[in-house]
Amino acid sequence: MAYDPNNIFARILRGEIPCKKVYEDAHVLAFHDIRPQTRVHILVIPKGSYASMDDFSAKASEAEIAALFRAVGKIARDEGVAESGYRILANAGADANQEVPHLHIHIFGGQPLGPMIRPPK
Ligand code: AMP
Questions:
Q1: Where is 29: in which H helix or E strand?
Q2: What is the pTM of this model?
Q3: Which residues are catalytic?
Q4: Sequential pLDDT tens for the chain (121 residues)
Q5: Is 33 buried (19+), middle (13-18) or exposed (0-12) by CB count in 10 A?
Q6: Relative to the CA of 118, which of 1, 38, 106, 108 has its CA 20 to 30 Å away?
Q7: Distance CA 94, CA 101 (A)
Q8: What separation in angstroms does the CA of 74 have from each of 15, 52, 53, 80, 89?
C-alpha cells in the first residue's frame, strides 16, 4: 500500500484538522477515535509516514518502534484500562478493511470486549 500524504491522519499530524489528543512525544501522537466503538477507543500513530504495520516494521527506526509500543502501554495505564483489560488492534490492508492508510493502533477498553474476532461469514 503506497503512502498517501493527504490521508486524514497525515493531515492531523500537520495540524490541518483537529483531534482530541491524549498523548504526544517526538515519535508518536495518540487521540480519541472520532467514532468510538467502545467506552475507551484511542488511536496511537507514529509521526513518520508509514502506511501499515508491514511498512513500519520494515522501515522504522528502533527508536520509533520502541516509542510506539511504549506509548500504547502508557496510554492504557493513563486511561485506566491496564488493570481492567483492553485490546489493541492494527488493521493492515484490504482483507483487514484498513480505512486510513497511515499505521494506527486501536486501543479498545472500558468494558467487556467480547470475542476476539467475528467469525467470517
Ligand atoms: P481502520 O479501519 O483500522 O483504518 O480505522 C480507522 C479509524 O479511524 C476508524 O475507527 C475511524 O473512526 C477513525 N477516524 C477516521 N477519521 C478520524 C478522525 N478525523 N479523527 C479520529 N479518528 C478518525
A1: strand 28-32
A2: 0.97
A3: 104
A4: 679 999 999 999 999 999 999 999 999 999 999 999 999 999 999 999 999 999 999 999 999 999 999 999 999 999 999 999 999 999 999 999 999 999 999 999 999 999 998 887 7
A5: middle
A6: 1
A7: 10
A8: 23, 22, 20, 10, 16
- Cβ neighbours of 71 (radius 10 Å): 23
Could you tell me which residues come within 8 angstroms of residue 114 by beta carbon, excluding any fewer than 6 positions away? none
DSSP alpha helix (H) spans, 1-121: 8-13, 53-59, 62-78
Does ligand 1 have an atom closer than 6 angstroms to the CB of 94? no
- Residue 37 phi/psi, 5° resolution? -100, -10
Residue 33 Cα to ligand 1 midpoint, Å, equals 6
